[in-house]
Amino acid sequence: MKKFLAILLAAIMALAACSAFADDFNYDDIPDEMTSENGQYPIAFVTDVGQLKDHSFNEGIFNGVKRYASENNIAYKYYQPANGNQATDDDRYDAMKAAVDGGAEIVVCAGFMAGAAIEKASSEFTNVKFVYVDGSHFGDNTVGVAFKEEQCGFFAGYACVKEGFTKLGFSGGGGGTTPACCRYGYGFVQGAEAAAAELGVNVEMNYSWLYGGTFSDSPELETMLNGWYENGTEVIFPCGGAMYLSCFSAAAANDAWALGVDRDQAADSDRVLTSALKGVDAASYQILKAYFDGGWDKLGGTDQVYGTAEGAIALPTAEGSWRFTKFTVEEYNKMVEDVISGALVIDDKYENMKTEYDHVKISMIE
Q: What is the enclosing helix (H) or strand (E) of 129?
């Protein structure tokens, strides 16, 4: 068991280094849709709310799915639950059933909201494997995939304050009930506090879950964030599906800054200061590899958690993505080393978050 986990860890780190955060692989070279010769699609992906090509969570996971499938000549297909952002548990289950009916051996499912549908589908289709990204396992034919979002949230908050920004904002999705979004936000607060303490400055932060229940962009969300910027907020971290579209628009209108999430979103707007990355592409790729290499018996019924040490959490440092002028790559790399060594410990218990710290004061917008 220990040998297998060591091999898996090494593979994840290697893959993340060359795939999750690199600029030299073009996922667009792999088609999103292909035709199976026998009409069967052994690898399936069921999206979260929003579009497949969302430049964020869905697209990131699917990139790893289609890359593994294409490299190994395995037919693949994606399925989107009916009713879009209003999809129900039944809609998600129907998409999973369609995947099984289409010949899926393994179904990669995106998003915290997929839990009830996965629990039902995995208990009904016991010979099919289910991968629950951003969730926990249910039985031996499921594996949970989670990330230490608090780490990249910390990096982002720390970097913003070290760059000289003292008026920040966080706009989260899921109404404050989605663990991944909560960890992002809590890490962001911790990072801002740490940098503010070092610099001896005070930071003000707007913090809200409003208008993010469906993880969508909306006029209401954009209006709120415009108001933040107009009142002095310098950088906003939108965390939840397509919510970033509203934030990027508001940032552009106010000549202010926004942060990307899940994937490097620098190409989406010149107002993206940095992005809080998690290697969902690397994780989906590696889980598929483990399954088709015969390693499911070591994964089924477990929760796999990926963080900085596994190469799955980062800020992008490539030219064009690193837009800091004061905070340096060297300072960032030292922080990464400290997290890996254990010298820097970032709390993941988001229920511990306060509204006032020694240097950060949070205004909860409800």
A: strand 129-133
